[in-house]
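Q: Please design a sequence for this.
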């Protein structure tokens, strides 16, 4: 009995491992071998002059504004203007800024994007250098996790550009864009639609399509968290599928055609501690797609070009001065050397097209399988239990034995159903905890390594229960309903048999799903 159980369990484990291997794509990202080499560690902008203005040269006047959009809609915003007349290029003490100031419209990254909460340090610092800045609220009525239209967003931000051009003291032909993260998929569209825009500042720009960037970020975060190798199989299967409920069409948006078509100079900046962006690959794509590209890498800076200080997260000390110097020094700074400078970036793997899942490529199908399996694991035991209960009540009335599961089936059937369910819940909980650790840049070997072992051990318990059940059913020649002393036939027996096989089917569907997500990998 023992050896037969071990052999059957091993056969089921191998079958599940093979199923998981052939059911969808593996994850084999291409390593980056040829790394970028910045010309110098200094991020100073070639051709920039302190005489043009530096952060701190001006007092900043901040005003809440309302920006009209199409169809009678409007968004709020914060306008920051340099007003100290003693700065470079001013008309004299206590005057308002001289005409011809450069202006910057800020384009938000992912999220809600309220002007009061976004770009506060950067917009204020640049205004204090003599640049008028406008941070609009992001329009949210047509923006959600599921639905985003970057071309439509570009049209909305264009109204902020027009608003800033109308501010006294701003040179309409010296207005440009500052786009961060997701905003870097929006701003190139704006540049093509409005060739009058003078420049583009890309902060932590993905450049590659969102789906590729998401897979890259997940891979990087998981590596930083030291997850077991088996967890990586989930990346293409989660990121590559069409997500449940539809939407997410923007996942494959490719901004590179717009980058190739726009002609204004670009300043691209990255923080070397940003694990979410393909720093080197993004730089190479920009250099290949556009002319007059200047790139800077900031040591220890994160996604927002902030660094840890005793006072908390603050902008990298060189960042605002470099950006201001580049903007105020145009057109000289557009092509001034060095083109690529700063700290050495370290991108381990390329962001590449994500393989498409084979079995669960449709997220609705995946959800349907899991929900159906859960329903079967509820309905099946209810049918069995109800038939057995009715049989007991009938026995009390008539004295005749009622229908029940055949001997030796109840415990392994319960073990299979509970084991498959518990393993599924444990896997979901494990991935959720790992995701939180990864996003917080934390490591916890007990949770990350021990949790994965725990999930797989639960899975093995379910497989052993399946092996015991399979062997017992074979011994019974498939007759799973039993009435002591009588023939196991009739309507009650059919109900018990149906409930039994529904429970087995539901548990099997969960085991196959668990195999798909990597819970039963055996190095296959």
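A: Design:
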């Amino acid at each position: 009995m023992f050896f037969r159980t071990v052999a059957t369990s091993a056969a089921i484990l191998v079958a599940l491992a093979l199923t998981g291997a052939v059911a969808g794509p593996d994850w084999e990202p291409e390593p980056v071998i040829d790394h970028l080499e910045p010309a110098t560690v200094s991020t100073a902008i070639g051709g920039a002059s302190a005489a043009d203005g530096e952060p701190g040269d001006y007092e900043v006047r901040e005003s809440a504004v309302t920006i009209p959009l199409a169809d009678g809609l409007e968004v709020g915003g914060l306008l920051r203007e340099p007003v100290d007349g003693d700065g470079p290029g001013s008309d004299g003490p206590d005057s308002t800024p001289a005409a011809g100031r450069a202006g910057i419209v800020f384009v938000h990254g992912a999220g809600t994007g309220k002007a009061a909460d976004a770009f506060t340090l950067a917009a204020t610092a640049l205004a204090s250098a003599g640049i008028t800045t406008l941070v609009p609220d992001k329009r949210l009525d047509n923006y959600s996790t599921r639905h985003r239209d970057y071309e439509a967003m570009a049209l909305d931000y264009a109204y902020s550009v027009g608003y800033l051009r109308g501010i006294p003291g701003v040179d309409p032909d010296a207005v440009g864009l500052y786009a961060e993260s997701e905003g870097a998929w929006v701003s190139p569209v704006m540049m093509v639609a409005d060739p009058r825009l003078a420049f583009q500042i890309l902060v932590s720009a993905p450049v590659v399509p969102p789906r590729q960037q998401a897979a890259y970020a997940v891979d990087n975060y998981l590596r930083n968290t030291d997850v077991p190798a088996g967890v990586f199989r989930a990346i293409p299967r989660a990121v590559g599928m069409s997500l449940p409920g539809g939407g997410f069409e923007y996942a494959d948006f490719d901004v590179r055609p717009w980058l190739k078509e726009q002609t204004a100079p670009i300043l691209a900046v990255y923080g070397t501690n940003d694990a979410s962006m393909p720093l080197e690959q993004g730089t190479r794509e920009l250099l290949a797609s556009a002319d007059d590209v200047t790139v800077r890498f900031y040591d220890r800076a994160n996604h927002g070009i902030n660094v840890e200080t005793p006072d908390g997260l603050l902008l990298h000390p060189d960042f605002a001065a470099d950006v201001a110097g580049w903007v105020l020094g145009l057109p000289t700074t557009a092509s001034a050397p060095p083109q690529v400078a700063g700290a050495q970036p370290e991108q381990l793997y390329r962001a590449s097209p994500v393989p498409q899942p084979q079995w669960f490529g449709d997220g609705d199908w995946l959800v349907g399988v899991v929900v159906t399996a859960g329903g079967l694991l509820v309905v099946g035991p209810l049918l069995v239990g109800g038939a057995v209960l009715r049989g007991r009540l009938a026995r009390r009335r008539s004295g005749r034995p009622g229908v029940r599961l055949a001997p030796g089936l109840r415990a392994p059937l319960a073990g299979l159903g509970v084991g498959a369910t518990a393993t599924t819940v444990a896997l979901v909980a494990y991935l959720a905890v790992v995701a939180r650790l990864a996003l917080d840049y934390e490591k916890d070997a007990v949770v990350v390594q021990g949790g994965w072992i725990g999930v797989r051990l639960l899975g093995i318990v379910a497989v052993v229960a399946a092996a015991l059940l399979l062997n017992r059913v074979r011994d019974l020649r498939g007759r799973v309903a039993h009435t002591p002393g009588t023939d196991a036939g009739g309507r009650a027996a059919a109900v018990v048999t149906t409930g039994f096989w529904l429970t087995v089917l539901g548990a099997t569907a969960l085991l196959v799903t668990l195999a798909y997500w990597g819970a039963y990998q055996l190095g296959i």
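Q: Thanks. Anything notable?
A: The chain has two domains: 2-24+358-516, 50-209+253-342. The chain is about 45% helix and 15% strand.
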